[in-house]
């Protein structure tokens, strides 16, 4: 049963394991389409509205590519200054108006509650592309899909996974969503490694614990790297710091480099990051000296965004059963993946 049919997708709490497995199955089928090696027009005639009130590169473009790879068309607006909100229009009125134009609407907004207000004002499916420091459900979908694929190659299962989340866990909406999604599996050990003022929100910690998982909280970077199957780094999001926090620096270094990985990481660990990463020297982020390490999965992770979002669109718009019968080969040049 497709529980996403006609639904807004606002939080990872909406997903169950059956739905997640179906989405992964569809994403596998759609991989050649995402890579341009095959095509489908299963959403021919459908239009997606893309409303990004906050900066984005990967999320916005991969949503657009996903919808167009399915045969649909996209209408974009980017930035508050380009919307009628600057004229005093409410977010609810904006939702009511645009819902008459599109079959599905993808929204990113800096305020956590805005996405919920929009979804409550329309019956058109709204997909959350990031709501402030709240959630980023489709990033979590592609992250979990990446872990699933990497584990499959390494002979591991999602159950009993040891995953470390490192860096800015307070404002990192990607890790908030990923904790909720990974909590669908059995016996997960979460290690949350962060500066003390950027620790994981307590409600996320309790979410995992109430579902029977182990949670370790630490301010020691090496504890996040040592003996974990997945090392998920995040950027320090200074743009979300509140007044008085903007000048704070982590007391300890949270830069993950090749030397630390070689000393503490498992030989088959997966190193992930939602991107963008801060590659500047001495930044508290994932160092680019890891770019030659096969454990670095960040670009395979980024590539997973298009098939994962294609699968989501197919399920929300109810064409998931039509996918396989509509796929045909393409004739144009397609480059081999570098990842």
UniProtKB/TrEMBL annotation:
EC number(s) reported in the record: 2.1.3.2
Record pathway: Pyrimidine metabolism; UMP biosynthesis via de novo pathway; (S)-dihydroorotate from bicarbonate: step 2/3
All copies of domain Aspartate/ornithine carbamoyltransferase Asp/Orn-binding, residue ranges: 160-315
Keywords for the protein's UniProt record, in alphabetical order: Pyrimidine biosynthesis, Transferase
Catalytic activity: carbamoyl phosphate + L-aspartate = N-carbamoyl-L-aspartate + phosphate + H(+)
Record-annotated Aspartate/ornithine carbamoyltransferase carbamoyl-P binding domain positions: 9-148
GO molecular function: amino acid binding; aspartate carbamoyltransferase activity
Alphabetical list of InterPro entries matching this protein: Asp/Orn_carbamoyltranf_P-bd, Asp/Orn_carbamoylTrfase, Asp/Orn_carbamoylTrfase_sf, Asp_carbamoyltransf, Asp_carbamoyltransf_Asp/Orn-bd
GO cellular component: cytosol
Top-level division of the source organism's lineage: Bacteria
Entry function: Catalyzes the condensation of carbamoyl phosphate and aspartate to form carbamoyl aspartate and inorganic phosphate, the committed step in the de novo pyrimidine nucleotide biosynthesis pathway.
Family: Belongs to the aspartate/ornithine carbamoyltransferase superfamily. ATCase family.
NCBIfam families named in the record: asp_carb_tr, PRK00856.1
Full protein name: Aspartate carbamoyltransferase
């Amino acid at each position: 049963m497709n529980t996403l049919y006609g639904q807004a997708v606002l939080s990872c709490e909406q997903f169950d394991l059956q739905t997640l497995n179906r989405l992964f199955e569809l994403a596998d089928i759609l991989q050649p389409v995402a890579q341009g090696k095959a095509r489908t027009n299963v959403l021919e005639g459908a239009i997606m509205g893309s409303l990004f009130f906050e900066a984005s590169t990967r999320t916005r473009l991969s949503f657009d590519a996903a919808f167009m790879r399915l045969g649909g068309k996209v209408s974009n607006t980017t930035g508050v200054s380009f919307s009628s909100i600057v004229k005093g229009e409410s977010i609810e009125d904006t939702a009511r108006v645009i819902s008459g134009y599109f079959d599905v609407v993808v929204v990113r907004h800096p305020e956590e509650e805005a996405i919920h207000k929009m979804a409550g004002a329309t019956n058109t499916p709204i997909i959350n592309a990031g709501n402030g420091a709240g959630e980023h459900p489709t990033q979590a979908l592609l992250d979990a899909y990446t872990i699933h694929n990497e584990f499959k190659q390494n002979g591991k299962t999602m159950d009993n996974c040891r995953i470390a989340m490192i860096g800015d866990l307070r404002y990192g909406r990607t890790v908030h969503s990923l904790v909720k999604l990974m909590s669908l599996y059995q016996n997960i050990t979460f290690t949350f490694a962060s500066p003390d003022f950027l620790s994981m929100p307590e409600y996320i910690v309790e979410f995992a614990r109430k579902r029977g998982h182990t949670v370790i909280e630490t301010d020691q970077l090496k504890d996040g790297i040592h003996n974990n199957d997945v090392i998920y780094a995040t950027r320090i999001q200074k743009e979300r710091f509140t007044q008085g926090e903007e000048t704070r620096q982590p007391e300890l270094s949270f830069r993950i480099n090749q030397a630390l990985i070689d000393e503490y990481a498992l030989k088959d660990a997966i190193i992930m990051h939602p991107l963008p990463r801060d590659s500047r020297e001495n930044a508290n982020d994932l160092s680019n000296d890891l770019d030659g390490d096969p454990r670095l999965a960040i670009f395979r992770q980024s590539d997973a965004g298009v098939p994962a979002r294609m699968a989501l669109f197919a399920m929300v718009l109810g064409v998931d059963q039509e996918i396989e019968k509509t796929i045909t080969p393409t004739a144009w040049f397609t480059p081999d993946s570098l990842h």
